[in-house]
Amino acid sequence: MLSKKVKSRIFFLIVASVVTSAIIFFILKSLEDNVVYFFSPSDIYNKTNISFNEKIRVGGLVKENSIKKNQGKIVFVITDLKNEIIVSYNGLIPNLFSEGKGVIAEGKLKDKKYFIAEKILAKHDENYMPPEVGEVLEKSY
Amino acid sequence: MLKKFFPNKILSIDNKFINNLVFIMAIVATVGLIYALFLSPPDYIQGDSVRIMYVHVPSSFIALGSFAIMGVASILNLVFKIKFMPLVAKSLAPIGIVFTLLSIATGSLWGKPTWGIWWVWDARLTSMFILLCFYIAYILSWKLIYNFEKANKVSSIISIIGLFNLPIIKYSVDWWNTLHQPSSITLTSAPTIHHTMLIPLIIMMFGFTIYSLIIFLMRYKIEIIKFKLKKKNIK
Predict the structure, then answer these.
(1) Each residue of B65-117: pLDDT tens digit?
(2) Are residues A50 and A112 in the same domain?
(3) Does B7 have pLDDT greater than 60?
(4) Residues A31, A54: one domain?
(5) Which of A62, B7, B142, B143 has the greatest number of CB atoms lying within 10 Å of its CB?
């Protein structure tokens, strides 16, 4: 049904695809630290080669009742429900920044428990619902 | 119906058929826009900013889908030597690039009030930018290379290599930590979009698809005519 020429082209295509996929996989795997946009608190906790002078990003949920504001400075806790890290920040906060919601902090690690942020980004989750449904959801917590 | 894509029959897709499609698209787009912009509820967190999603998500869908079809067409051309496949891909490219740009622009407009930043180099946004580069490379290869067969080979290779970027775009939010949120509509689990927002989103996707089909048919007809004229002139 398929001529020899066609078969050899298909074979070549499959081999080339497998090889290309493998190359891309290994490149992305080795660049993991750079492809990832932020580390979770657990990543920071488990990491062995952290430098304390490099600019990195930490992301997770803002821990409930952890936001403390003090004359333009703000201190809060980022959690991924397994580990936590304390973040302090001086500056403007985006509108969507609130407790229980996602956040990404960019800055430097003081030590494994303490992070000094230079920039705060609010992260939106994948849930979309009208306010009424949202209220029902919040009440059920 | 599929026969209509073959060069001999494509010219029979006359203006009446395209006009019917335009009519359908106008209805779908109007219903979709009214639903999306006015009747659907604001989001419980982001408020009315969510309405950009009704343009952003369909644009991304068309941008990725067009490139996928271009890639498949290029494979069919390289493997089976089906003559009109490069014309299919060539006709889709401008549509794809426009919607890629629209996706990036609407995404930035959404990101500034929501995230607090216009652009980040996280996996999703970076891979979309790479898609844009592939589209530019593809279109330029047709514009700059005069010989049809050479342009066909180069553009086909570009589109096939670009195919590998598509799963990276799609799964970037699941594989790595990104600022862009994870997928809300997946094949394996229930959508995390409430139905009052999911329905206008689907209507808008449908409208965008019909629009793309119309533009594609118009371009494809012209490409076939150009191709046939070239063949006649050589003979």
Answers:
(1) 999 999 999 999 999 888 889 999 999 999 999 999 999 999 999 999 889 89
(2) yes
(3) no
(4) no
(5) A62
Element (H, E) at B19: helix B15-34
**A30 in a domain, yes or no?**
yes
Contact yes or no for A72/A103 (Cβ under 8 A): no
Cβ distance B79 to A129 less than 8 Å, yes or no, reads no
CB contact under 8 A, B79 and A101: no
Interchain proximity A123–B179, CB inside 8 Å: yes
In Å, how far is A1's CA from the nearest CA of chain B?
A: 12
The alpha-helical segments, DSSP class H, found in chain A are 4-30, 32-35, 41-46, 131-139
| Domain that residue B105 falls in | 15-40+47-183+195-234
Domain count along chain B? 1
User: By residue range, what is the domain housing residue A2?
Assistant: 1-35
Q: Could you tell me the CATH number of the domain that includes residue A85?
A: 2.40.50.140
Q: What's this model's pTM, rounded to 2 decimal places?
A: 0.90
Q: Which residue of B has its CA nearest to A18?
A: B164
Mutation site for B-interface testing, chosen from A128, A139, A140 by largest number of B Cβ within 10 Å: A128
Residue B5 belongs to a domain:
no
For A59, the enclosing helix (H) or strand (E) is strand A56-62
Yes or no: say if A101 and A61 are a contact pair by the CB < 8 Å rule.
yes
Note whether residue B3 is domain-resident: no
- Residue-wise DSSP of B27-70: HHHHHHHHIIIIISPPBTTTBGGGGGHHHHHHHHHHHHHHHHHH
Q: Is residue B30 part of a domain?
A: yes
- ipTM here: 0.86
Q: Using CA coordinates, name the residue in chain B closest to A9.
A: B79
Q: Which of B7-11, B66-70, B187-191 has the lowest mean pLDDT?
A: B7-11
Domain assignment present for A131: no
Residue of B33, B114, B47 lying closest to A128 (CA atoms):
B47
Task: Give chain A's domain count.
Answer: 2
Taking a C-beta distance cutoff of 8 angstroms, is the pair B118, B108 a contact? yes
Does A112 lie in the same domain as A52? yes
The B-side interface with A (CB below 8 A) comprises: 41-46, 50, 53, 75, 78-80, 113-117, 120-123, 161, 164, 168, 176-179, 181-184, 192-194, 196-197
Which residues of chain B are within 8 Å of residue A130 when distances are taken between CB atoms? 41-44, 194, 196-197
